[in-house]
Every structure is written in structure tokens, then in C-alpha cells.
Specification:
Blueprint lengths: L2 H16 L12 H7 L20 H7 L3 H16 L4 H15 L26 H4 L2 H13 L9 H9 L11 H10 L21 H12 L17 H11 L8 H4 L3 E5 L8 E5 L8 E9 L2 E4 L8 E4 L10 E5 L2
Helix pairs in contact: 1-4, 3-9, 4-5, 4-7, 5-8, 5-9, 10-11
Length: 332
């Protein structure tokens, strides 16, 4: 029997053993049904989608296009993640990596000697050919390497996937963030992984991390704006965010356009204290972002705005000009 056929049999057997016949159908949004049945919210550490403007509902739409083999692999990723008591965030990272590398298929070909779901290379020490084409081995190996990545829990899932895969195209893993969140919720039976109860628009108490960042930023009020400054005596917009979250133990990139990629995203109307807000010349194009501020809750924010204006707080409206439709939650 050929390796590809044998692998397919193994996946099918395992899939049948761990899921019911209705698993494929569960990809449709069934959160209300889960809540009615008392499904427990296992964790609130899956990233928040959508990851790009105008993608509300994209996760469910992408998941609806998955074939049986792809869903079997998703189920395997989640099942092994649960068996190893890993957080839903780890499942999400593996799903995004697998979808990017192979389309969640167990390929017997790839670039150079890359094989399998995650395109692991025997020549790079990932295992033998037989191992890197064996689905359970691949998933466990991916998790092993992920757990060795320092700080993976606080990275955006696509960045954590890149830390494992080390691709020449590091940003491509973000594309599948909405779909991975949807699968974590629906196949993994994690209720509200994307919002974790925070999607109502009500102002919630800030997390400990956000509270520290807010405390720092508010403490810098009155200091002058200087383009390119990162403190301690003056700041520009992204320099203030950099130092505020540094004080909270979270490392952000230097400039606002990169800070937009440095956390979990959520609709701006659902922003909570500590989330970052962005402004762009073209709000639908993140490459045109030119300003960042920190949301404080209750329709207020703190910012280092422009030359001649010191660090200050002001009111913010969700419909003001150039405001990007997504807020970012650093450290998530």
C-alpha cells in the first residue's frame, strides 16, 4: 500500500473514532445551540477575527469551503490539542499554519523535500519521511516546536505560526485567522472564542496588562509631541504606545503600521480599555495607517497627536474620518 493511501486510511480511522457523523455539519455557526446545551467556554485566548477590513463572516465562509480531508485534519489538530491540554490558541496557530502550508492536506510533495500538513522537511530534522507524512506525528511535532517558542502565547497567532515554520513570506499566515477562530469555536466547541464575552460593546474592566499600559500612558500627559520620539521626555503617537505596553510587559513594533499587526483584531465598535485605535489615509488599506492611539473606554482615548500638541486625552467617535474599522488588542 502506498504511503499516501495508508495515511488516508489512518486519518479516516482516527477521525471516525474521535468525532460523530455530524462533525462536518458543525462548521456552520452553532454557538447558540452550544450555549443551550451548556458547552463550557474552555478558554478566552483565541485571537479575534476578522483580521482584515470588511471580512465579517469571512471565517464561516472560508470554513464552509473545506472538504472532508481538511475537516478531518482540523479535527485531528483540535483532538490532539485537547489531549495535550493545550489552549485553543495553540489549536488556532496549528490550523492557520496547516492551511497556509498545505491547505490542511497531507501532501506527499512540496518545495524541496517538504512534506505533509505543515510541509516539514526531513533534511531539516523534522523526522523521517514516514514520520512527516503521518498525521498524528506531524501535529504533535508542530505542537512540540510551538511550545519551545518563547512567548508564543502573547504573539498574534500568525506570528507564532511563522516562528515555527520560518517561512520566507511571514505575513501570509494571518489570512486564515478568521477561519481558524471559527473552527476553534465550532469544531473545538469553544463558545465565543473570538469575543470571550467581550463582544457586546459594554465597557469592561481592563485586563491587568491593559491597566498597566493605560496607567503609563496617562502618566505621560503634558509631555511634548516630537516625531520619532519614544520617551522619556517626548513622544510621537507610536512611541507612546510602544513605551506604554513595554511598561506592561508587552513588546510592540516601533511604528503604527506594524503595531496594527501586533495583536488580535476586533471591530472598533467593540474596543475595550487598552485596545489600540488606528487612523489611515485610506481606512480600508492598512498600509496607509499614519496614527495610533489607546482607547480608555467610555468614548475616550489617550494619544500623542502632532507637533505643538502635548500628550492628552480626548473623545473619540466611531464614525470620525480615517478611523480604521479594526482595533487591536496587544498581548492577545
Amino acid at each position: 500500500m502506498k504511503i499516501g493511501v495508508l495515511v488516508g486510511v489512518l486519518v479516516t480511522v482516527l477521525f471516525a473514532a474521535v468525532v460523530t457523523a455530524g462533525t462536518v455539519a458543525v462548521v456552520v455557526d452553532n454557538q447558540q445551540e452550544q450555549q443551550a446545551l451548556g458547552v463550557v467556554n474552555l478558554s478566552c485566548d483565541a485571537a479575534i477575527g476578522p483580521s482584515q477590513p470588511g471580512q465579517q463572516g469571512k471565517g464561516a465562509a472560508d470554513a464552509a469551503n473545506l472538504k472532508d480531508e481538511q475537516l478531518q485534519i482540523v479535527t485531528l489538530i483540535i483532538t490532539i490539542g485537547k489531549q495535550r491540554q493545550l489552549s485553543p490558541r495553540a489549536w488556532q496557530i496549528a490550523i492557520q499554519a496547516g492551511m497556509t502550508e498545505s491547505g490542511l492536506r497531507n501532501l506527499n510533495y512540496g518545495d524541496r523535500d517538504s512534506l505533509g500538513i505543515f510541509q516539514m522537511r526531513p533534511s531539516m530534522g523534522w523526522g523521517t519521511v514516514a514520520q512527516v507524512t503521518d498525521p498524528p506525528y506531524q501535529v504533535n511535532k508542530f505542537y512540540d516546536v510551538l511550545l519551545a517558542v518563547k512567548g508564543w502565547e502573547t504573539m498574534r497567532p500568525g506570528e507564532a505560526a511563522q516562528a515555527v515554520e520560518r517561512s520566507g513570506f511571514p505575513d501570509r499566515y494571518h489570512k486564515w485567522e478568521p477561519m481558524a477562530v471559527h473552527l476553534v469555536e465550532n469544531v473545538g466547541e469553544v463558545v465565543d472564542a473570538a469575543g470571550c464575552g467581550e463582544g457586546t460593546g459594554a465597557v469592561l474592566p481592563p485586563s491587568q496588562t491593559a491597566a498597566k499600559a493605560i496607567e503609563f500612558a496617562l502618566g505621560e500627559q503634558g509631555k511634548p509631541y516630537v516625531w520619532g520620539a519614544t520617551g522619556p521626555n517626548s513622544y510621537d503617537c507610536s512611541g507612546l504606545m510602544l513605551r506604554a505596553y513595554e511598561a506592561a510587559g508587552v513588546t510592540l513594533p516601533r511604528v503604527s503600521r506594524d503595531q496594527y499587526k501586533a495583536g488580535a483584531m476586533l471591530p472598533v465598535e467593540q474596543a475595550q480599555p487598552g485596545d489600540l485605535l488606528f487612523w489611515a489615509y485610506d481606512p480600508s488599506n492598512p498600509k496607509t495607517i499614519h496614527h495610533v492611539a489607546m482607547y480608555l473606554g467610555d468614548g475616550k482615548m489617550v494619544e500623542a497627536q502632532q507637533s505643538g500638541v502635548p500628550v492628552h486625552t480626548r473623545k473619540v467617535s466611531w464614525d470620525e474620518g480615517e478611523l480604521v474599522a479594526q482595533a487591536v488588542r496587544p498581548g492577545v
